[in-house]
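Q: What structure does this chain adopt?
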Amino acid sequence: MKNSRKGGGARSRGGPANPTTEERPGRKKTKALPKFAVIGGSQAFRFLADGTRKQRLGERETPFGKSQPVYLFDSPVGSYLFMSRHGEKGYSVAAPFVNYRANIYALKDIGVRQIISWSGPGAISAHFKIGRLVIVDDLIDETRHRPSTFYEHGGLGFIRQNPVFCPHLRSLLKQALEALGMDFAAKGVYVCTEGPRLETPAEIRKFSLYGADLVGMTLVPEVFLARELEMCYAALCYVTNYAEGIRPAEFRPGVLFEGLATEEERQSVEATIQSFPQMMEAMTALTEAKPSECACEKLMQRYRDRGDVGNDWREWIKH
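A:
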């Protein structure tokens, strides 16, 4: 992962929030970008190859290196931005090596205020069946080596983490899934491990004692970085398999998770993944219709009030 900071300025080379332009007879009309974005997980690249109406806006240069490419998706109910955190051609960047700081900075830089994370963790709790959706409400950080803050200098970042995930976006997710008739759990505790290896049975037993329901590798530091920049962030997960030791599973070489999921379970996961565009269209409509009712945009207010930072968030990040 390349996290070297390029140049002295905090603004990316892309300049201000990138508008798109529409050609019209005799003039160009500027079209503002959506303020709602989706960061997709291990299967996200598939949606970049289908026939959905989209425009590649490209990578963004940031003080932390290049971000993953940003796409603009158009739907009948509105538009949203999309980023595949593991790569746009396939699963080319494993979770520990994702440049989370560049990705979040890039989305903030083009004007994004609300982020939905889409990912596929394993289940620690047998109450979650394979393929079921979970709106995560709490988090345990078991990562070890990932850069986890924008504020390495300046004494900033002492931010409360309850609620971890934006309650307004979580409420909209519930409304969207209910309207679509999806099977989902409204709560779940996600433990984020370092990876890229999977967990041992003893580690899963430990996480179960902690109260974790799901185990994955991608929500940390992503959610914490979004909160540092006062962005709304919520996580929608789909259960891909049962974690190691939850049930007997014969080792099967050459298949995904080496036998932790059956063929029938993989089909259930695939059915959930296929519903992703409809879910994001529903969320696009809701985010446009219902203004935020949360405190996410005030997470740095204490630092403003005492004069440590101004209103330009780029200046908060010192070099």
